[in-house]
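Can't paste images in this forum, so I'm doing it all in text. The chain is below; anyone willing to post the predicted structure tokens underneath?
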Amino acid sequence: MYINQSTLEMCLASQKALETNYKQENSGVKKLIWEQTHKLLSRIVDGSVQIAEQDIAMVEKLLGSYLRTAYGRNKNIARKLSAKLKPFLQQRRHNLSRLADFNYVAYVLNNKKSAISLSQEELLKSLRTIKSYNAGSNKLKQRLLQQVQSYALLKYRTLPAQEIKSGGITQEFVRTFGLSHVKANSAVVQKQTVSAVRPATAQPAKSQISWFGKLSASASAIISLTADKLADIRQETKSRYHHLRHRVKSFYYRHEYKIAAFTIGLVGLGMFQTHKQIEKAEQATQYKLFVAPTLHKSNEAQTASFTHEYAKLQANSPTKVTPSKVSTTMLGDGYYDTALLIHLKSASAVEKLYRQIDALQQSGKIKMSEGMDTKRYAHSFTMYRLIRPNSKENKAIENLLNGGVEDASYIDALVKQAGAKGSGVKADDNSITTSNFARASQDLQQKHLQNLRSFSRF
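Text version of the structure:
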């Protein structure tokens, strides 16, 4: 039975008055009002009375005032009642809001237990949701309308006569579903049902029923109960399946164009990524074919063989050439000379590097390709040491300058990669913030800039 809105308003006004009334002579009236509020809220919690959606906010205000006016041992009573009523109101509001979704209404109506427990207001809201839905199948809509009408009829037959005569939501429920004529019919049906279950002949006395008959009746009852449970499980599973299928189909038809566009986008992205991978693989293959002859080979057998042959060559030579005796490159005023003076800081360091590279060329450890010379090698080696000191390229160069053995083709390829001005040597990060050029003398800077302009024109 739905509580009248005017009753709630009157109860809220009386309860609000207790918050500002501190006179002791009215303690009996205060107690009476508080107990009246407690009784009303308790009936809402246990389901004796129901509240409309529009009255939920008013009941929450009534509960807040009820808590504020509870003192002494009544405080614990109020807190316990509030712990039950607050989630009940939240769930009530949540259920009513979900009934605005057509898919949820279809799910509830396909679940017999949930549908039977719907209140008059929930059935009315379900009906409005179904009627306002125009995006799905008309056949599904008609079936749901029939179901909600059937459950409304079942709900109507369980209502007491006093509630049917009352106004408010119940009257709207009867009028909307067209149930005003059903009361007399239901009474006739009930009378016929009662008369049908009463047989003309008297039932056998309890003493006349044998133990076998009792056992059979018990077995039949158990089988019937089990069959009902299995039927309920089957019906619930079937309703869940239909609900899920309905939601999938509804989602597909509502977003058909979006799904098609998304699928085309995925296919296009896949084709683009595949094209990039193929192009990357082709580039890697071409790079391997181009760089294969100049790769640094660190095979132990080859290195050992080269070292052995070089040792035999040194043993067979009549005199051991020292770097100072074989040096043919002198420090001048060219571009590489001034660049190396800036980076190495002294002429002796530059001449030492020239002698080392001349000696390596004389011994066959490096083989300069056409257009290369000692100064170009020295400049490239210096660029690798300054810009990429921890790289494998610089480690190979340092090993070569310290007397080790490296693949001459690999070293020559590194010099080519560095470029004429060293621009081919890229730093691993942006950690280089200063330059040796900025720390060089002004005369050396001017001379190097003049060489740079001449070298660029050349």
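The first helix runs from residue 5 to 20. The chain has 22 helices and no strands.
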